[in-house]
Specification:
Order of helices and strands: EEHEEEEEEEHHEHHHHHHHHH
Strand order of the largest sheet: 2-9-4-7-10
Number of helices: 12
Number of strands: 10
Shape: globular
Structural class: alpha+beta
Largest sheet: 5 strands, antiparallel
Length: 288
Amino acid sequence: MDAVKTYHDVNKADDSLSFGISKMEDIYQKRKGRPDVPHRHDYYTILVVKEAKGSHIVDFTTHLLGNNQVYFISLGQVHQLTEFKPTIGYSIVFSSQFLALNHILVDFIEDINLFNDFSNTPPLQVEPKEMELLTSYSEEMLRLNAGDSIYKYEAIGALLKLLLITCHNLCSLNQLDTQTMEVGASLVRNFKQLVNQHYKTWHHAAAYANALHITPDHLNRVVKSLTGKTAKEHIQSRITTAAKRLLYFSPLSQKEIAFELGFSEPANFSAFFKACTGISPSTFKQSV
């Protein structure tokens, strides 16, 4: 039903590898500067971009490629990179298996709130001095990955976690007191898991609040404080992202998509989609 190109293995030549890192300029030369087709991965991707010019489309939202940016692409997100010149930077890919092998909990990845598998995923803009630090971590991971030193993947795992923590601390959104972070992180994590499981049938925040045994107001306050978006906005983003993927990549009719996403009437789906995106489903399909 979904025709989007999907990369399943971090290294297609060796499916036992669960981590990879490459210089983005080398990838550009390998592709001879041509944009890749829209695609997604069954693993995490970080793009540490020092110098670039072009665009990066993530789930149908276009971001301008520029200097000193960091992109975080989660499992399942559809993206496409278009470069007007060779990008200077690093592409870091790793699987959930790599996290487990290096004792990095998936909860940690969810709590730092850098990877969003739905909703808008803008790049993290950093200062040149901060980019120097991220570059040093990336360069050391590249060096280790090319060698055969003892415990090389453990060392890479430590550097990866350090890079993620550094980026997390650079996000102004995360400048909250420790108590708020600790109390809210588990709730937000559970909420997001429920959204991924039930977005086709639960379209309102009240259903999720009821499942979490809290009030909708409390859910909205906590989710907003830690993510910058309300629970309602997260739910709407998850539904519209799924709708856009189906409209673009699947042969389903709008009526079939409406029913697939839990709408009793196609007109209700069209009204919801237009309210959230500003355009109708048919206009979106014609525009991409």
